[in-house]
Amino acid sequence: MPRVLLVDDDVELLELLSEYLQQEGFSVELAHDGLSGAQAALGGQFDIAVIDVMMPQMNGIEALRKIRTLSNLPVILLTAMGDDADRIIGLELGADDYVPKPSSAREITARIRAILRRSQGLANDTLSGIKVGELELWPTQRRAQWAGKPLELTSTEYSLLEVLAQFAGRPVSKDQLSQQALGRPLAKFDRSIDVHLSSIRHKLGTLPDGRSCIQTVFRQGYQLIRDL
């Protein structure tokens, strides 16, 4: 049974969401502030955490920052509708996805399932390994390395890089990346793909000629260079 940690100071909202998730077959625990939520997330007892950004004492962004110092636990942020700054900062810090509030319990549940399918390898995955130049990925273990050194990627960053590696040398549209890596259609004005790829580029570094391994292809999407 997948274990979900819900972190929000809105007690009524958490109880409603918890009840829905339990009916859908999840095990759920609650925390009502960022500090206790981060401590619970780092306890290693959960498969995913859903964290509200606006909370007293320690907000969701700071809780995420604390979690990411020690853990790659998948995290979904609940952000205020239209607050692009929180969404971008959250994604840059390693959030796997975000859901604007108010959202239905059904949508949040669907986002949780999409991320768990990727992070737990429940998706159909028969590849034993992918190698593109100095980049190597092991999909069944969701592990990657560059030039023989481990890459520290979030779950979503790994999924995006895996899709690009499968199509190395060819551009992949943002919509295709969203569908295959995030498990949802690309929404209008959604910049999450760009933010995640910016983080991946930073982690991969540059090639000897100064180019990024991941190129932007005008009006077509992104492309992982095949000859790395």
UniProtKB/TrEMBL annotation:
The keyword Transcription applies. It is found in: Cytoplasm. Residues 3-116 form the Response regulatory domain. One of its GO terms (biological process) is regulation of DNA-templated transcription. Residues 127-226 form the OmpR/PhoB-type domain. One of its GO terms (molecular function) is phosphorelay response regulator activity. InterPro entries: CheY-like_superfamily, OmpR/PhoB-type_DNA-bd, Sig_transdc_resp-reg_receiver, WalR-like, WH-like_DNA-bd_sf. CDD domains: trans_reg_C. Residues 127-226 bind DNA. Keywords: Cytoplasm, DNA-binding, Phosphoprotein, Transcription, Transcription regulation, Two-component regulatory system. Signal peptide: none annotated. The modification 4-aspartylphosphate is found at D52. Its main location: cytoplasm. This is Response regulator transcription factor. It comes from Chitinibacter bivalviorum. The lineage of its organism: Bacteria, Pseudomonadati, Pseudomonadota, Betaproteobacteria, Neisseriales.
